[in-house]
Amino acid sequence: MTPLEKINSFPLPFAALMGVRFTEAAPDRVVATLLVRDDLCTVGASIHGGAVMALADSVGAAATVINLPAEAKGTTTLESKTNFIGPAKAGTTIVATATPVHRGRRTQVWQTRIEGEDGKLVAVVTQTQMVL
């Protein structure tokens, strides 16, 4: 089973509810897209910060899952920090790309860059995942 098939074989319920679509997965990179819908926005038709954070959390968790040691039972987020850079408007698609900062036996740290379809940076998220 490829890493992308592994991720897609057990959909994350909240990510699925939001409409997150995993498009690429390898041990060093996981990519997902999200259509910015009106119900994911704040006043002014810009994506809500919580939706940005949930997207990044889902992508970082998926990246951790495909990098878990054989004896691991799963993962959970320990910490997440988000820097909001620019808006993403309703009707556009954003792309989240997670890359590893650290992959250890007990923790993994992932940085997720979220960009608009125009390539402009929306947010940068760094999260620490605990290996269970």
UniProtKB/TrEMBL annotation:
<dbReference type="GO" id="GO:0005829">
    <property type="term" value="C:cytosol"/>
</dbReference>
<protein>
    <submittedName>
        <fullName>Uncharacterized protein (TIGR00369 family)</fullName>
    </submittedName>
</protein>
<dbReference type="InterPro" id="IPR006683">
    <property type="entry name" value="Thioestr_dom"/>
</dbReference>
<dbReference type="InterPro" id="IPR029069">
    <property type="entry name" value="HotDog_dom_sf"/>
</dbReference>
<dbReference type="InterPro" id="IPR003736">
    <property type="entry name" value="PAAI_dom"/>
</dbReference>
<keyword id="KW-0378">Hydrolase</keyword>
<dbReference type="GO" id="GO:0061522">
    <property type="term" value="F:1,4-dihydroxy-2-naphthoyl-CoA thioesterase activity"/>
</dbReference>
<dbReference type="Pfam" id="PF03061">
    <property type="entry name" value="4HBT"/>
</dbReference>
<feature type="domain" description="Thioesterase">
    <location>
        <begin position="46"/>
        <end position="123"/>
    </location>
</feature>
